[in-house]
Amino acid sequence: MKQYDAIVIGSGQAGGPLAKKLALSGKKTALIEKRWVGGTCVNDGCTPTKTMVASAKMAYLAANSVPLGVKIKNFSVDLEQIRKRKDEVVHQFRNGSQKGIESTKNLDLIFGDATFIDNKTILVKLNSGREKEFKAELFFINTGAKTFIPDIEGLNDIDYLTSTTILDLEEVPEHLLILGGNYIGLEFGQMFRRFGSNVTILEKSDRIVSREDEDISEELTKIFKAEDISIYTKTTATSFKKKRSGKISVLISADGKEEKIKCTHVLIAVGRMPQTETLNLQKTGVEVDEHGAIRTNNKLETSAPGIYALGDVKGGPAFTHISYNDYTVVYRNLIENADLSIKDRQVPYCMFTDPQLGRVGLSETEAKKRGINYKVAKLPMAYVARAIETGDTRGFMKAIVDADTKQILGAAILGVEGGETMTILQMAMSGGITYEEIRYYIFAHPLFAESLNNLFMALEG
Ligand SMILES: Cc1cc2nc3c(=O)[nH]c(=O)nc-3n(C[C@H](O)[C@H](O)[C@H](O)COP(=O)(O)OP(=O)(O)OC[C@H]3O[C@@H](n4cnc5c(N)ncnc54)[C@H](O)[C@@H]3O)c2cc1C
Ligand SMILES: NC(=O)c1ccc[n+]([C@@H]2O[C@H](COP(=O)([O-])OP(=O)(O)OC[C@H]3O[C@@H](n4cnc5c(N)ncnc54)[C@H](O)[C@@H]3O)[C@@H](O)[C@H]2O)c1
Fold this sequence. Notes:
Blueprint: E1 2-9, H1 15-24, E2 29-33, H2 39-44, H3 46-63, H4 79-102, E3 107-118, E4 121-126, E5 131-141, E6 145-147, E7 175-179, H5 183-195, E8 198-202, H6 214-226, E9 230-232, E10 235-242, E11 248-254, E12 257-263, E13 265-268, E14 272-274, E15 307-309, H7 320-335, E16 349-351, E17 356-361, H8 364-369, E18 374-380, H9 385-390, E19 396-402, E20 408-415, H10 418-431, H11 435-439, H12 451-457
Flavin-adenine dinucleotide is lined by residues 9-14, 32-35, 39-41, 45-46, 49-50, 113-114, 142-145, 163, 184, 275, 278-279, 311-313, 318-321, 323, 352.
């Protein structure tokens, strides 16, 4: 049985870089991956969706070019080319990471499905069909999450789509019904509407993006409705039935009333669940919560000594940059004797609808709940010179500031390149730059960033 110093299970956004750095630090390391190097982000998450969102944006621009004085006649969407481009980008990223791992001294990349025998031993069902046991002093679990499939009558009798299978559709759905109105539902909903599908989104809560402030949900709803996307809130599906015509009949319960909708495709986007059920964690003493997420402390140590958990598998904010940050925390604590913690770290994120929603820090709702003496700065994108010049004034900029200290507490930028503008405020928050300083800051004209002067001017008087 081969003995390692460290075994990393899962080559997600933490696992790959961590395995390389551990090996380079002198630890004999193995990285076990059951599918593809790069995990969800590279293979069926961020990378493929954002390449396809770019195609959807191109279709939107072509369809809306006339006001800018450009007539585009007869454009069409070529899903095969969109898929091909997406696959090329994914393969480029995946192969690049794999080569980097394979050429790292002291590191073995093993393709197979790992399960614990005890807290120092794993059994790997190799992709070649054989089984092998490996031992290590340290284990790092980075097995990510997968689509949660709700228990709804008839769902298993239709070929429903997930965020993975929808990436490889060979034709644009005639009518795509989406269950769930948050990141995945909204990014795919708008994308396929722009590719030519009729799109209906069913959201269980009383508004889409229900974790955000109400004005954000309202503005996004307006933006989606302007593209003829149907949104039902306080609604879920109660049964699915495949018709002889090939169509799917969906019984929905909308705000207490029942209604039937026909569609051709169904995308399930009601959340993701940690991939822990096949790890045999009961053999290790690693505790999980009621959702199967691994419990860790602020240094990402589990309840079993020598076993760490990083990324989506531990629950909490499920983003690539958070998983990557987990890796730096674990690595630097272990190898560089740092004393880093994930407590109170910033969690920025960007939803890649068009326009984007860039978010960091407190929302207005949270500031109110905490009883903070806050003020809200808000500027419609229709007042942003760059937005007017480039012909897209949808959305607004919003910042929550501390009325006493003048520090920025949070920001929501719903607008073109909203993620980039949000990041400027995120850095101001890290550096303790006050909103008054930003109000008088020199930004190059006419950038979106320049309007941060005006955003905070709104707080004067
Ligand atoms: C459609 C979609 C779009 C997204 N877009 C964004 C975005 O724009 N921005 C953003 O920040 N985040 C986005 N995310 C979330 C992001 O992809 C994840 O948060 C990120 O990939 C972090 O994952 P991870 O490192 O925890 O693990 P993952 O990347 O999920 O990797 C886990 C790896 O472990 C492997 N594995 C699992 N079990 C075993 C086992 N027993 N043995 C061996 N290997 C195993 C899996 O095959 C997988 O490769 C998106 C997610 C989805 C689904
Ligand atoms: N741009 C990004 O950063 C990005 C993009 C895609 C995904 N992600 C990550 O992927 C994760 C999963 O995203 P998601 O959108 O699937 O999940 P989510 O948990 O963020 O949202 C699920 C939505 O479905 C609704 N819902 C739940 N049950 C329902 C039902 N039965 N009927 C109708 N609606 C129902 C919920 O109210 C919620 O609005 C997120 O946590 C996110 O971190 C990030």
